Amino acid sequence: MDFREAVALALEMLAANRIRTSLTVLGVVIGVAAIILLVALGEGATAYITRELTGLGTNLLIITPGKTQTSGGFHPPVASTVRKLTYDDAVALRRRATLLSDAVPIVLGTGKIRSQGISRHTSVIGVTPEFQRVRNLFVEIGQFVSDEDVEGRRRVVVLGRTVKRELFGEENPLGQFVTVADSRYRVIGIMERKGVSLGFDIDDLVFIPVKSAQDLFDTDRLFEILASVRSPDDIDRAIQQVKDLLIRRHGNREDFTVVSQGAMLSAFTTILKTLTAALAGIAGISLLVGGIGIMNIMLVSVRERTREIGIRKAVGARRRDILGQFMLESVVLSMLGGILGIALGVGGAEGLSLFFAYLPTRISLWSVIMAFGFSVAVGVFFGVYPARRAAHLDPIQALRYE
Amino acid sequence: MIAFEEVWRSYPMGPSRVDAVRGITFTVASGDFVAISGPSGSGKSTLMNILGCLDRPSAGRYLLEGVEVAFLDDNALAALRNRRIGFVFQTFNLLPRMTALRNVELPMIYGGLHREARRRQALEALAAVGLAGRIGHRPSELSGGEQQRVAIARALVNRPAIILADEPTGNLDSKAGEEILEIFHHLVDGGATVVMVTHNPRIAERARRVIQLEDGRIVSDIRR
Ligand SMILES: Nc1ncnc2c1ncn2[C@@H]1O[C@H](COP(=O)(O)OP(=O)(O)OP(=O)(O)O)[C@@H](O)[C@H]1O
Ligand SMILES: [Mg+2]
């Protein structure tokens, strides 16, 4: 029997029990679709994070107060601060760290911002002019914070788009005064629209000169220093340079952490990759359950067709003919499930990101190939036992079977 | 062509054993038409299963065309069943979902014939049993006699050395049974060898040689 005929025969047998076949296939369909869908979600999230983080400006270094053990982790701003980072640290970095192009001191706080009786609780960021370049975030109308504003501790503010809309609507706010935590600030600019990034509304911020922010929040500490490295090849050397400089300034103690954006990115993606693999593994288990369904149905089928097996053996079928026939049926079952599962998984992933913008998905070829290969392997693995049982039936007993 | 020498077939049954065939010795020449007859439980089917290479003797020698069957492995036995033996059963044993034509093609599928050759030979075999007009019918759409004729077509389609029939007329009325016998006679006239089990003496009479079994032994062997 050539292969085409064998496949046709297998399909014919499966078609003879449509409902049973469909239900068995469904088990595999769900497993395969789950693998593809979950991997697509994980990969989509990874791609999204990568895009957002690199969109924040390239060659970025983040210097935070306090020392954490690993170089790539996250740093809760309050937890482990031994010594503070100061405005002068940032100035020293800007002047003497030759591998850096910018070093921006950042003060972060929250406050109520009010204008004409409308108020809004929002994040207030103290910055220097270089912030625009470093974070790739620019003013659109009016002006950004200038060096004079910083040195003069001027009470000027640049509004994010959301804040502007909430407080002023369509009105032009330039030159108007707003109250930021009980102090009066003059509006000098409006930022360009950036939207939501990593779950954070970049437009829902206001920017003031860093020294004014220190006054406002009554602190001489910085939340962090953002620095950009001149050349992407120099990131590691720049980190070392920053460390050397700050250690000297901090009395020979490394009480701060320097992380490159690349390190943060790889920390994120490592977490997401692990998560994706774990989810795919769980989905794989459901595929195994589908395989058990195949085995069950094939065992039933062997029993029901005992007489048929006897007849085939009586007219000259060898063991491997019978084995091949039943193996082929289980593999066709699982492959059918694989193909339909791919369709469902790919369709589902596309649909998800179409209807839910916050669920980015990315279908990766490897997950499709892997899921399909796995489904075929399941068919082979769970088909072997029933097929062997069929192949080893005694022809005389099989022929007598009622 | 067929030679049995002191063939035994025993089944272990708990502590004791059942001897279904107890030392049978006989030969069948090519072109002969042999009927095997005897009471129920006398070992006729057991003998036929050994003849048909579906089973092996527990002791003794069985030579089919000079080959000692006991020394063959499963694949070789399957090949013998496929090419040298055609089996006809009392209960027809056709595949219910397949048409007459495909049922007759079945042995040739395992014989590795090409589709066109298979089809041609299957049509010839069906014509030989007078069923050229029923090739597209499934077993459930055929009468008992017609089903048995399809089974005979299947048995002879690979031009076997010997056709074995275990009570081929047992499930048929006398008219349909008569037609089956006609076909066997016709085949024998054409040079085929047929061994047929029956416990109907009137049917046994129609063969050229009648072997009588009792209790797993040959009690008479009469040539007409
Ligand atoms: N698988 C088996 N296990 C044990 N005993 C068996 C087995 N097959 C057959 N026998 C026994 O062997 C003896 C011969 O059985 P066999 O089927 O050959 O009889 P038979 O002559 O064909 O009878 P019938 O005319 O009723 O078909 C019987 O006593 C039967 O019980
Ligand atoms: Mg019998």
What does the model show?
The complex is a heterodimer of chains A (about 400) and B (about 220). Chain A is of the alpha+beta class. Chain A has 13 helices and twelve strands. In chain A, helix 1 (about 5-15) packs across helix 11 and helix 9 packs across helix 11. The longest helix of chain A is centred in the last third of the chain and has 44 residues, at about 260-305. Chain A is elongated and about 105 Å long. Chain B has one domain: P-loop containing nucleotide triphosphate hydrolases (Rossmann fold, 3-Layer(aba) Sandwich), CATH 3.40.50.300. In chain B, the strands form two sheets. Chain B has a six-stranded mixed β-sheet, sandwiched between helices. By secondary structure, chain B is of the alpha/beta class. Chain B has helices spanning about 45-50, 75-85, 100-110, 115-130, 145-155, 175-190, 200-205, and strands at about 1-15, 15-30, 35, 60-65, 65-70, 85-90, 160-165, 195, 210-215, 215-224. Chain B is built from seven helices and ten strands. The chains are: A alpha+beta (about 400), B alpha/beta (about 220). The interface between A and B is medium-sized, with 21 and 25 residues. The complex binds adenosine-5'-triphosphate and magnesium ion (MG). Adenosine-5'-triphosphate (ATP) binds near residues 13, 43 and 44 of chain B.
